[in-house]
Amino acid sequence: MAPKKKPQKQSNKAASSSSSSSSSKPKPSSGPKLQISAENEDRLRRLLLNSGRTAPPAPAPIHSALSKNQKAKKLNTVYEKLSCEGFVDDQIELALSSLRDGATFETALDWLCLNLPSHELPVKFSTGASRFPTGGGSVGVILTSREDWNEPSDSSVELKQEEPEVLVKVKGKQDEDALRSDQSSQADWIRQYMRRQEEEELESWEDEVDGVGSSREASGPRAFDVIAKEYYSARSDAIKAKDKRDKKGQEQAGLAIRKLKQEIAALGISEATLESEFQREYAFEDATEKEIASPMPDTVHEAVDADSIQPLDEPVLDENPVENCGSEENQRKDLPSCSPGQEVVASDDNSEYLALDDMFSVDVPHYEASPHELLELQKKEKMRELRSEENLGKLEGIWKKGEAQKVPKAFLHQLCQRSGWDAPKFNKVTGEGRKISYTVSILRKASGRGKSRQAGGLVTLQLPHQDEVFESIEDAQNRVAAFALHKLFSDLPVHFAITEPYASLVLIWKQDELFCTVQSTEEDRRANFVDRLLEADSLSLNDSSSSISDAVPMVDTYVEEKDDLGLARSSHRAKRDSYIEATCLSLQQRQENKKKTRKYKDMLKTRTALPISEVKNDILHHLKERDVLVVCGETGSGKTTQAISVAQRVADERCESSPGSDDSLVGYQVRLESARSDKTRLLFCTTGILLRKLAGDKTLNDVTHIIVDEVHERSLLGDFLLIILKSLIEKQSCDNTSQRLKVILMSATVDANLFSNYFAHCPVITAQGRTHPVTTHFLEEIYESTRYLLAPDSPAALRSDSSIKDKLGSVNDRRGKKNLVLAGWGDDYLLSEDCLNPFYVSGNYNLYSDQTQQNLKRLNEDAIDYELLEELICHIDDTCNEGAILVFLPGVSEIHMLLDRLAASYRFRGPSADWLLPLHSSIASTEQKRVFLRPPEDVRKVIIATNIAETSITIDDVVYVIDSGKHKENRYNPQKVGAVEGDEELTPLGHHLAKLPVDVLIGKMLLYGGIFGCLSPILSIAAFLSYKSPFIYPKDEKQNVDRVKLALFSDNMDKSSELNNNDKQSDHLLMMVAYDKWVKILNERGMKAAQRFCESKFLSSSVMRMIRDMRVQYGTLLADIGLINLPKTGEFAGRKKENLDVWFSDQTQPFNMYSQQPEVVKAILCAGLYPNIAANDKGITETAVNSLTKQGNQTKSYSAWYDGRREVYIHPSSINSNFKAFQYPFLVFLEKVETNKVYLRDTTIVSPFSILLFGGSINVHHQSGSVTIDGWLKIAAPAQTAVLFKELRLTLHSILKDLIRKPEISGIVHNEVVKYMVHLLIEEGKPQHT
């Protein structure tokens, strides 16, 4: 037997008890609470159902390896569980029919929450909005934690849920169309009016998003529930007025009804829906009133005609529906509605009355009860039949009406005697706790013949519940006698003949058996449905397998098409070969003419002096024989290929103009800069540029040679390139193509055999280097030559962080020094004679001075001693011959720190300051070129670089190299960006990201910025995140910088985009605002004014200029993949950077529709930066809370943040470090930096909706009304809300998929799903009025 269905609502008493019990102990937060208004929920659900998106790939059928019986068992289990949750059979069967073999309990709940309106769902799964409309905003985000948040507070609502529903069918005239409408489910006709009115609804959303309908909240259309309530009231008034023959009352009610119908039509909802709601409520109220008035009625309510209650599968129409519907008696007793097509004929006196009554008749089918409701009604009908006096005929000769009722013992004795059985015997039974009860034993004689024969024998009966308490022995015996009457004489209405309370007990036992019978009927229906579903699946499989043969006749056609295509390709190849031959002859002639010039001959002498020239013939010979060659050249051999500088040098050696010019065959292409033309035949480029070219041209038909330098560095992109090149060469070998790609691998320090073996043991050529003698000086020698003293308070000196007690314990024998330190005189290091540097070995340094040994003892080898670097540079400048100094430091910030120290030095003022040169990958190419220039006499060139200069370039005049011995190392956690499926196939998002030569997080942000119409701010933010923050922090100026940051938010020059206080909780929006203000001043008042602005706001002008260039680059990349369009004519035409940047900032462009909406921009930030997210205790799961509590983080006097594994801290440079309270419990960040703590840099507070739309994997907990993201973030939301957001994600997935097929689509921002997601985000950001 299936378990009984759970009640959908607890009683007030139960709820109160539960609440009081739970309040005695603290519970973890259930997360921020989300709720969508009735209008938004209904619109969103209709939009998703009618979006027409391609269904996502169905999960692998979980039952595919199971037998038919096992599948049936699993489907039955799902059916049963859904039934227990309160879903009716029609709903369950629709869901399982749609999901079929892949159905699980969770997927079925998802389907039901998406496809059913809120008022048809059990209360705990619905948003509750359409049941209980509120006057607040469209979207509510509530941060107060309550465990009973989804329980409505209106007690009247709870009472309504507890009352039983009585549904009836009224006889009336129905044509065939009406009958078919009657048989369709309620969900079907609701979906019909949804589809009819979708367009008007979507237009209203657009108005709201664009601000057109900003006043609608005050004067706009009312909710359906409000109109339905007034319609019910007006219809009820009309019925009462009709019964009283009150014509004036009927007129007033009719006028109100007409207005309400007009109002509901304006909402796009049919009158049929309104009438259906009225009939449901009227039937419910009418039946409930009668039930209350007569708890155990002998007859059913007058309005219910027993003949009109039909089984579900056998609808029966009345033989004479017109007469019944038009008769005065039936019209008064039935529900106040006549069927469609009814004709009314009456005298003139009643014409006005009948005209008003006809107005109430609407052309809609009557309300159809669900199967579950019909079964409940059948139970009530059977109970009515049991109580009917028509059954008294079965007691003829035994008892008749008017005779005195008997006690069960006496009546049982009478019936046993009448049947020829022995007299019943009562036996005493002692139970637990000395409770006394009785059994009754009866010896029955066999009776009847054949199939009607009933066996005899002794039968002993006892009460089903043995723990009952009886008033007396007589009462105990009468109760068991009543039970015996019920079981042994079940065909007789014995309850009429016996006294109370035993008669009522018999009825209760019969009602329980009736429930079991009905439950068996439900089980039979369930089993039949599952069998039909599995049989349909089996048939569909057979159909699909039989259709395979249909594809066979297509083979001949395909072969013919392939032959035609081969001929076309052959013709194209012949033309291409002819063109290549002509071009080669032209270039060869040009080269021969160039060799005759004096400049070229001088260049050849210099080139011949390079060691690489000695193996020139060997290289050419091997390239003729093999496709791959490894050239192992030592430093200075002349093999380098550094893009910009070498491109210029090669152009000079070829006696040509600058790379990219019309008369030059040389070009280069690097990040943010390109110098190439149609004439370019030799291109120097980065690995990323070549990989991008391979993505568009997998065969590289227009490339003959590829030279890969620095292969020993084994970068991710470098190794990936070698894999692709190897595959391409192998494919060419198999195809026997005439044109073969040649690959040359080069490096100064390469493991030649490793690469030779990888490329099928290709030849290796080694070129001797042209090196100079190098003298190495180590740290202790530098200490000696400079006589440097490492000060105890230097950042490079080790300091003890131990307590005073520890310090005193180490100097017990040195009380003089201890007292000196405690008095505030002297140095801390004097407290301990022990070696502080764990790497210091005293025996290795006996030959050095005491000062050098003390320096080494106190040295913190993890720190950089900038003071020593400055002193060493000055020492070289004073004592050494001419030559440039090259200093290696780990990163950009370290480079600038040393540059600032040197620039402040007296030695490097004047002309010398111009030759303090930084060198790293993020500076502009013009700045990089300066390192190759020679300074004037008596000026020392100092280059401070990262390891870009270690192996990638050769600077001729560098004589002195200082290596700090430090380098930075990034460690990456596996990123979940949704680019790859479980089978390693690219997702639609992954396809787009593969086309963008940027970091995947930045690429994802750029894509969504274009799709969601906020491109300009995202271009700025993405550029800052890829490069660096524009803010500079002079020493002791942190407070002033913080003040300026807040002022930037407040002094917004563009009032239309003024930010509120919550929007100021974002470092990324701050960067956006800073750039917008800078570029506005730049365009209106010029560079000098922009420079002054930067100086006043602690901003870097060079960073701002770089950001402008990167914005143009990123925008152009999006145009290249077809996401946006570039201007072709007008003031923005051309590829000039300034023009394009203004174009990308144009607010009238579709891709900037919502660039003034901070909520949308922050949501796209969440999309790009996720999973770089942290949350405080209001936004994490109970499991995560318990885990962090075990780590000792249970008591905090501040708002702590967690990254899912540990406590983290907002970096002091973040604007959010100054806030104590936050709008939401979630933030995204750029990176984590670990020093003494784990800090989050560049943070932005993001909303729960942003995380639901763009965060990690969603797990909907339907029963508890909560959602977890990636297993540790928690948001409380009704199941339907969570499922709708889950479906929104899948729809966005489909939009990206469409964008792959149609990359030319530029108006994607006009997609209705995208617009509605924007609408939700904007509504969420509005202040809530609770």
Can you give keywords for this protein?
24 strands, 47 helices, disordered N terminus, 1330 residues, five-stranded mixed sheet, four-stranded parallel sheet, alpha/beta, 47% helix
Brief characterization of the structure:
Helix content is 47%, strand content 9%. The chain has 1330 residues and is α/β, with parallel strands linked by helices.
Describe the protein:
- The chain is built from 47 helices and 24 strands.
- By secondary structure, it is α/β, with parallel strands linked by helices.
- The strands form 7 sheets. The chain has a 5-stranded mixed β-sheet with strand order 17-20-21-19-18, sandwiched between helices. Strands 10-11-6-12 form a 4-stranded parallel β-sheet, sandwiched between helices.
- The chain starts with 11 loop residues before the first helix and ends in a 5-residue tail after the last helix.
- Helix 37 (1015-1026) packs across helix 41 and helix 43 (1158-1169) crosses helix 47.
